[in-house]
Each structure stands twice: as C-alpha cells, then as structure tokens.
Amino acid sequence: MAMILGITGTIRSGKDTAANYLVSKGFTHYSLSDYIRKVVREQGLDQTDRTILQKAANELRTANGPGHLADKALEFFLPGMDYVVSSIRNPSEIQVLKRSKGFTLISIDAPLEDRYKRALSAGDKKFQAFDEFVESEQRERSNDPNGQQLHTCMDMADYYIFNPGTGTDSLRRLEQKIEELLIKLESEK
C-alpha cells in the first residue's frame, strides 16, 4: 500500500527539510502552498509575500470550502505512489487527506528562538524583526473555519517530531527521526 505523509508544523520547524528527505527516499512532494502561489501569480500579485499568500488561501477556502487545497492535491495523486504533502494549515485539509488509504499526519515543531535563527540564517527577508516572525505565526493560529488553524492541525497529528537546534547536527537528527518513522510505518503496513 502506498503512503501519503502529511506534514504540518510551525514556521521554520523543518517541514520542507523533512519533505526533501522523503523525496530522497522516493516520495513525490506536493505542497498546498504551490497551488496558492500559482493562483497568486495568475492574479499578478507577489507570491513571496506571506501575508498575500495567507489571504489568498483563506479566500480560496471561503469560496470553495475549507478542504479545497487538499482536494486540489488529490487530483494529482496517482495510485500506488508515495506522496508527502506539506503546507497543511487547516483541519478540513487533513480530513480530506484522511480519506486516502495510507495517510499519516506528522507535526514538526522547534523552539521559537531556534526557528527565528533559522529564518535569519536562511536570509529570509520577510522576518527582519523577531516581532514580525511572531506576528506571522500568530496569523496562522486563527479559529476561522476557512483560515489557518495551525495549532489545531498540529493537535490532529499521528506523530510529533521535535526538532530543536540549528545547523548540520539539527538536520541530521531530523533526518534520523524521519527515517525511524518510515521504518515504523513500513512495519505497520
């Protein structure tokens, strides 16, 4: 049976790193944010502005239902293939993905200070000040049924990965945790 691993978590917690590691293991990556970026690009808006992306995602969910982004992802999935789905920020997206056999949700988190350091070391120009970083994350913790409800998504996870630190050691530990989880999931098939 094919696996579909969903990844949710806080900003700069290691979600993309985990997805990239899974791609190296044969998974195909689909980011719900890629679809949002496509819509924003077609509207002629800045697809690198997190506020614009958040607003567009909320508008798409309001117009098409809160699980819309996950429905769009499933349109691309082929039977028998392993997928990793990232940028899951609404509980309805999880509910849609859970309809697929083999779906498992992983939540990744790290200390706030470590995540801010990662943003700075990656040259993330969106977060010049710590307050901007915290404010952006707070916008992803709404109770709007069509908005980002990151806290609720993280609570719905089947597995939790805590990813503290920065640098190469943190990267290796995260990859090791993902590898251990893959072995566990394979043994449960």
Compute the number of helices.
Answer: 9
Spell out the helices and strands N to C. EHEHHHEHEHHHEH
Strands, total number: 5
- End-to-end CA span: 7 Å
Relative helix content = 40-55%
Strand order of the largest sheet: 2-3-1-4-5
Spans of at least 5 consecutive residues whose pLDDT stays below 50 are: none
How would you state the average pLDDT, rounded?
92
Structural class, please? Answer: alpha/beta
Beta fraction: 5-15%
General description of the model:
With 189 residues, the chain is an alpha/beta fold. The protein has nine helices and five strands; from the N terminus they run βαβαααβαβαααβα. It has helices at residues 15-24, 32-42, 50-64, 68-74, 91-98, 112-121, 130-139, 150-155, 168-188, and strands spanning 4-9, 28-31, 83-86, 103-109, 159-162. It has a five-stranded parallel β-sheet, sandwiched between helices. Helix 1 (15-24) crosses helix 9 (168-188), helix 2 crosses helix 3 (50-64) and helix 4 packs parallel to helix 5 (91-98).
Show the helix and strand layout:
Layout lengths: L3 E6 L5 H10 L3 E4 H11 L7 H15 L3 H7 L8 E4 L4 H8 L4 E7 L2 H10 L8 H10 L10 H6 L3 E4 L5 H21 L1
Parallel strand pairs: 1-3, 1-4, 2-3, 4-5
Helix pairs in contact: 1-9, 2-3, 4-5
